[in-house]
Amino acid sequence: MSKRDYYEILGVEKGVGEADLKKAYRKLAMKYHPDRNKGDDEAERKFKEASEAYEVLRDPQKRQRYDQFGHAGMNGGGFGGASDFGNADFEDIFSRFSDIFGGDIFGGGEAFGGGGRRQSRRRRGTGRPGSDMKLRVDLTLEEIAEGVEKTLKVKKQVKCDSCKGTGAETESDFETCGTCNGTGEVRQVSRTMFGQFVNVQPCPACSGEGRIIKNKCSSCGGEGRKRSEENIKVNIPSGVSNGNYITLRRQGNAGVRGGEPGDLIVLIEEKEHEHFERDRNDIYYDLHISIPDAILGTEVQVPTLKGKAKVKVEAGTQPGKLLRMRGRGINGLNNSGTGDQFIKVNMYVPKDLTPEERKHVEALRGEKHFDPADAEEREKGFFSKIKDVFS
């Protein structure tokens, strides 16, 4: 929705703490609250804009990604980013930020329309919302490099097929709750020296649904849901990291008697690789070659994320040198570029030699090209000549 800086929208500094962040959002939410600005499209836009900013900055992982990549880091099909608040309805926003909009922050439900907003959060005839679920998914570096679609087997509460989630045998098996007269709420009014206070709570008799089941569904016992297993597909983009998560809206446990389903949160875990170490989008591989190969040069095959590849090792390559294979790393999140594969050259030094091998090595020991001190002198002589040329 918004392309303005989230910190600017909320009027806070980049390192703002959780308490000050909530305070800043609460101030804007009260100012542009829809019940205070009925019919004002600009106020509605600013209310949703502030909600989008708060959604990102209140979450440490989302904030870290936003600080690093800006708005580009918030795209990616639900990859822990901001939701589409431009298309969200107010009920969804209120339910997400119940810590902000719950209780008596907006005057005990009386200040902006007699508690109508609370009523909209649980419509008459709907039950309790389902709980969120968390599921861990192990990914190889090969899967992370290109992105992958996974099919997850999830054991969860699903809508009862027999009663279509209502909890009743038939639609005629409902009756209006006599305690709340179908409103789903009960109110308690108290008077003090400071004025009248109204406390609005869900009706205890019908759990806020406004109606009671006379004849419960024999299949689910009136819950409107049953335990089952579902196959859920999730598209995981390339470049994700250990600890990232993907939120699948409404894919969690089904609600009670038609309540909103919860979300399914897929946590990413990166498997340790047989060959590679990862650093952001780059990968590193340790190559071990023999002393003769390092001296004379060689061509070897090394593993990559897409199979084998040939690498040329120049003659005289020193231990610890890094060879680079461009574009052989991981495709970054949200098309942020592709990393490289680095190959660290290590020298293999045998511990046990045959008498014949030892004889050959002893013969080389006295050669000046195998003397580090002599090599250092030659390097100095070369650079001295270069210096003389330019002085």
Mind explaining what this structure looks like?
The protein is an alpha+beta fold and 391 residues long. It is built from eleven helices and 15 strands. It has helices at 6-10, 18-31, 41-57, 60-69, 90-96, 98-101, 116-121, 141-146, 291-296, 355-365, 372-390, and strands at 133-139, 148-159, 174-176, 185-192, 195-202, 211-213, 225-236, 245-248, 264-270, 276-279, 282-290, 298-304, 307-313, 322-325, 341-348. The strands form six sheets. It has a four-stranded mixed β-sheet. The chain has a three-stranded mixed β-sheet with strand order 1-9-8.
Q: What's the arrangement of secondary structure elements?
A:
Layout: H1 6-10, H2 18-31, H3 41-57, H4 60-69, H5 90-96, H6 98-101, H7 116-121, E1 133-139, H8 141-146, E2 148-159, E3 174-176, E4 185-192, E5 195-202, E6 211-213, E7 225-236, E8 245-248, E9 264-270, E10 276-279, E11 282-290, H9 291-296, E12 298-304, E13 307-313, E14 322-325, E15 341-348, H10 355-365, H11 372-390
Parallel strand pairs: 1-9, 11-15
Antiparallel strand pairs: 2-7, 3-6, 4-5, 8-9, 10-11, 12-13, 14-15
Helix pairs in contact: 2-3
- In this structure, how is the largest beta sheet organized? 4 strands, mixed
Q: In what range is the share of β-strand residues?
A: 25-35%
Helix content: 25-40%
Class by alpha and beta content? alpha+beta
Offer a few descriptive terms.
391 residues; alpha+beta; 4-stranded mixed sheet; 3-stranded mixed sheet; 11 helices; 27% helix; 26% strand; elongated
